Fold this sequence. Notes:
The structure holds two protein chains of two kinds. By secondary structure, chain A is of the alpha/beta class. Helix content of chain A is 32%, strand content 22%. Chain A has helices spanning 7-11, 31-39, 55-62, 83-91, 101-113, 128-131, 179-187, 242-251, 255-267, 270-280, and strands spanning 2-3, 19-22, 45-49, 66-71, 95-98, 117-120, 136-139, 148-153, 159-168, 173-174, 190-199, 213-214, 221-224. In chain A, strands 1, 2, 3, 4, 5, 9, 10, 11, 12 and 13 form a ten-stranded mixed beta sheet that branches. Chain A has a three-stranded antiparallel beta sheet with strand order 6-8-7, covered by helices on one side. Chain B is α/β, with parallel strands linked by helices. Chain B contains five helices and ten strands; from the N terminus they run αβββββαβββββααα. Chain B has helices at residues 27-34, 70-76, 135-141, 160-177, 179-186; strands at 40-43, 47-49, 54-55, 58-59, 62-63, 79-84, 92-93, 107-110, 113-118, 123-129. In chain B, a hairpin with a 2-residue loop joins strand 4 and strand 5 (62-63). The radius of gyration of chain B is 18 Å and the shape is globular. Chains A and B meet through helix 4, helix 5 and helix 7 of A and helix 1, strand 5, helix 2 and helix 5 of B.
Amino acid sequence: MNFLAGAAALAREIPDGAQLALPPDYSLVAMEVVRALVRRKARGLRLLGVPVLGMCADLLIGAGCVAEVESSAVSLGEAGPAPRFTEAAESGELKIVDATCPAVHTALQAAEKGVPFMPLRGVLGSDLVSIRQDWKSIQNPMNAESDPILLVPAIQPDIALFHARWADDAGNIWVGRRRELATIAHAAKRTYVTFEEKRAGDMLEDELLAPGVVSSVYVTGVAPAARGAWPLGVPGLYGIDDTHLALYAQAAKTREGFERYLAEYVFEGRAARLRDRASDR
Amino acid sequence: MLRASGSSLKVSLLHKRIGNPFTEGSRELFDLAGQGRIDVFFLGGAQIDGGANINLVRANGKRFPGSFGSAFMYPVVPRVILFREEHSRRVLVPKVEFVSARGDPQALLTGKALFAWQKEARRFRLESVHPGFGVKQILEETGFGFDCPDEVPATPPPTEEEIRLLRGAVAREISGNYPEFARRVWKIGV
Lengths: 281, 190
């Protein structure tokens, strides 16, 4: 477990071409690292939505950082479709691997347990089964009657990336009820986390905090990023900035609007470069 | 609304921002459904066809967000209600371009009509038409074939008490979690 200086330093740990597992917009997204990835001009990333993706994916796609998206959906929720995702999908420049939410969870749970695949009910009538050559349908070997069931292979992402309320001196992080983040951390080869605040001591010694902790065993590196999920939220601390999300959804409808958004909120010219340099120290 | 009127119904709003019912992350909903603990679920579709298939992926060169959990929830949850406010040939098609999910719904509700699903015949039957619309119009604006009884009743309008609940307690709860929807429908803000 490494303590890193900041979001920019963390973004440099994520190599081009990596398979990057990311949470949905409502579940502690490391947006400051996403912006740092855009600034460092990351390329060829393969995003995995656990189980869906939102603004973070749209920003990375629009900025040219992404080669492939595997997700059950990409959308901005109430703010509407994800405009850069939609355009890249319709023009055919982005490879999309369609999934369905519980299949993503199940595949990560298989990786958590170190088994090669896991069964999942439902799904068999969907066209997803015919486009997903990696999913298999078998007869339930425990049942003498006809009982087809889907198997999905384990997914072990190269990197899990998310945000947390706290990190402590021992390198543990606290995500509270967002347990899909624990699943991603358990399944991924490497896990990087930004955090709001540092806590002294070891949260695993506090019985009330421990159930929301992801142990440092699973964490490769952490970096401080106050308000690091903005414009998305950290439950109990700050909410989703719906006004900003609507502003983004409107701006990103055109390539020019998206570029203006990047200039104003991601690059911010000299200010962002200074911030990145400061976080290296 | 059922809950606000005193029913013991438990409503689990997936995106509830405060007091969300789930503590095991977003997989918990699917684990509950897999065990049969979810009785009713609502699903929409960019396209819905006469075989009750839904499409959330792509149509006419357009890309939609994706299938979400529909491929699993539709066949697994016992009572699924399909809904789509827009009632047009664009949405209600003979055959969807991509089957995100397939199942046996209880009903299909649109902004103009209510259809029941006939499981054996695998075909919709027009149940009622909302006030202000007629059967002829429903036939013209529906892209798939469906059974149509000789007499189709009008959908009963909500009672005064139901309207009071919808515009009061229900609107307040919705606006905390779907602020944009609440602004559009009820003109209320958070």
